[in-house]
Design goal:
The protein is of the alpha+beta class. The chain has helices spanning 4-14, 47-59, 108-117, 133-138, 181-184, 200-217, 237-243, 272-290; strands spanning 20-25, 37-42, 64-67, 73-75, 80-86, 93-96, 99-103, 120-121, 142-143, 146-147, 152-158, 164-168, 187-194, 196-197, 224-227, 254-256, 263-266, 299-301. The chain has 3 domains: 4-86, Uridine Diphospho-n-acetylenolpyruvylglucosamine Reductase, domain 2 (2-Layer Sandwich); 93-202, Uridine Diphospho-n-acetylenolpyruvylglucosamine Reductase, domain 3; 219-301, Alpha-Beta Complex (Uridine Diphospho-n-acetylenolpyruvylglucosamine Reductase, domain 1), CATH 3.90.78. Helix content is 29%, strand content 25%. A 5-stranded antiparallel β-sheet has the order 6-7-13-11-12. Strands 1-2-5-3 form a 4-stranded mixed β-sheet. Helix 1 (4-14) runs antiparallel to helix 2 (47-59). The protein is globular and about 55 Å long. 44% of the residues are buried. The model has no long low-confidence stretch (mean pLDDT 95). Its main location: cytoplasm. The active site is at 177, 227 (proton donor), 297.
Length: 306
């Protein structure tokens, strides 16, 4: 493996200095405000630069991690080695007829509101999802009865070898909170959504209603990763947690929200370890109380602190 100086020099051949950060604290880039440092945090602004960064990581055998906007993610306190790739600079949204092309770094909320502006229906469900387009595809994000797979036609990705591919929605095996994107090692660069013409007032009424439901029920006043657990078959995770009398409980500065039991909030300068242990506390208690296994929806990545 090349020296740190050599890696930095190679990155500088691909990206401007203001798109390269060394030992960058990842708490600055996650919704939970948790996480240790990244060795190299890069923010390419072109598809070609993404491809070159992937090829560099392969060439130097560097660990490589893709980071969206950190909304459904916990980064451990030991940080992440190698290159962290953020696509936040790729955020263009274009509309042609009833088709919308959104780059992966665009917030899915912004895409939903752009659809509203264009009087297109189909993305109302996404008006309260805090992630990016890339992250939404990564986990087939959904809410209020809608999912990304309902509107996705195709996506442009970079494969693990740095090749640019255009793949149909069927290629991603989109299921409940699942895609094959992590297994395939794809990096989503843009998505093509097929929507339907609608009436502005009707679409806005749905968006306003879903926004009210989100803001009135979710603990948006504290940092969190959003909904922590998948819905177990036949149950609601929040109800199981509430009935286990876990609200207000947690480890360290992390706490099960008293407003919405499906959320764990960073209430008082929590560490990632606090947050993860609070998740485990919830899983163990619900298992003991109801015999139900709660599966995490949130991803946990990175290294434990030394």
């Amino acid at each position: 493996m090349a020296t740190n100086a050599s890696i930095e020099q190679q990155l500088q051949q691909i990206l401007d200095d203001d798109h390269i950060m060394i030992n960058e604290p990842l708490r600055n880039h996650t919704y939970t405000k948790l996480g240790g440092a990244a060795d190299y945090f890069v923010t390419p602004s072109s598809y070609e630069a993404v491809q070159e960064v992937v090829k560099l990581a392969n060439r130097e055998q560097l660990p490589f991690t893709l980071l969206g906007n950190g909304s459904n993610l916990i980064v451990k306190d030991g940080g992440i080695r190698g290159i962290i790739l953020s696509l936040k600079e790729l955020k263009d949204i274009k509309v042609e007829g009833n088709e919308m092309i959104a780059q992966s770094g665009a917030r899915i909320i912004d895409v939903s509101y752009r659809a509203l502006d264009e009087q297109l229906t189909g993305l109302e469900f996404a008006c309260g999802i805090p992630g990016t387009v890339g992250g939404a595809l990564f986990m087939n994000a959904g809410a209020y009865g809608g999912e990304i797979k309902d509107v996705l036609k195709e996506a442009v990705v970079v494969d693990p070898d740095g090749n640019l591919l255009t793949l149909s929605a069927d290629a991603f095996d989109l299921q409940y909170r699942h895609s094959n994107i992590p297994e395939k090692g794809y990096i989503v660069l843009e998505a093509l959504f097929i929507l339907k013409p609608g009436q502005y007032d009707n679409i806005k009424a749905v968006v306003d209603d879903l926004t009210y439901k989100r803001e009135s029920k979710q603990p948006l006043e504290y940092p969190s990763c959003g909904s922590v657990f998948k819905r177990p078959p036949g149950y609601f995770a929040g109800k199981l947690i509430q009935d286990s009398h876990l609200q207000g409980k947690g480890v360290g500065g992390a706490e099960v929200s008293t407003k919405h039991a499906g959320f764990i909030v960073n209430k008082n300068n929590a560490t990632a370890t606090d947050y993860i242990q609070s998740i485990e506390l919830v899983q163990n208690t619900v298992k003991e109380t109801f015999g139900v296994d709660l599966e995490r929806e949130v991803r946990i990545i990175g290294e434990d602190p030394e």
